[in-house]
Specification:
Layout lengths: L1 H25 L8 H52 L6 H11 L4 H8 L3 H15 L4 H14 L6
Helix pairs in contact: 1-2, 2-6, 3-5, 4-5
Length: 157
């Protein structure tokens, strides 16, 4: 949460500095000065602007990295639970790959593209998975896997 507040603070600072610089350049901010004073003032504000921008980008990158780590951790946990549920279904390695993508909501075409296999092959794998898990549709498949994952039980074969 602190990083989000810092990002908001730095973003606001960046906008304020940029506005100040533009007003200073336009001569609307402060008194009219000699060109040396104007140039040095512009340089100081420009450097401050660059520092704030660099800090903002760094905080933004850290937040993005943290979100990616959390997302990856959640996906690994989900995959581990998925594997635990699928253990007793006697799926082949390829069927397990297809089942994972099926569980994640991929279409047959997307599964085929992801695994470099024909769509008809995907259909065969899907029908084998359905048969082994005793389900008749994607909706039933996902519901059964989710129910088994949430309850911590293993599917009965």
């Amino acid at each position: 949460m602190k990083k989000y507040v810092l990002r908001l603070f730095l973003g606001t600072g960046y906008v304020i500095l940029l506005t100040t610089l533009l007003l200073y350049q336009a001569g609307l901010f402060g008194e009219r000065r000699e060109w040396t004073v104007a140039v040095s003032g512009t340089l100081v504000l420009g450097v401050a602007l660059a520092v704030v921008l660099a800090l903002y980008l760094r905080v933004n990158d850290r937040i993005r990295e943290q979100q990616m780590r959390e997302s990856e951790k959640k996906q690994v946990e989900t995959y581990d639970c998925f594997l635990a549920v699928m253990e007793t279904c006697a799926l082949s390695e390829r069927e397990l790959e297809v089942a994972w993508l099926l569980f994640r909501g991929y279409t047959n075409r997307q599964i085929g593209e992801e695994l470099y296999i024909a769509e008809t092959t995907v259909k065969k794998h899907v029908s084998h998975i359905y048969g082994k898990m005793d389900v008749g549709s994607r909706k039933e498949f996902r519901a059964k896997v989710q129910a088994d994952t949430l309850s911590g039980s293993r599917p009965v074969r």
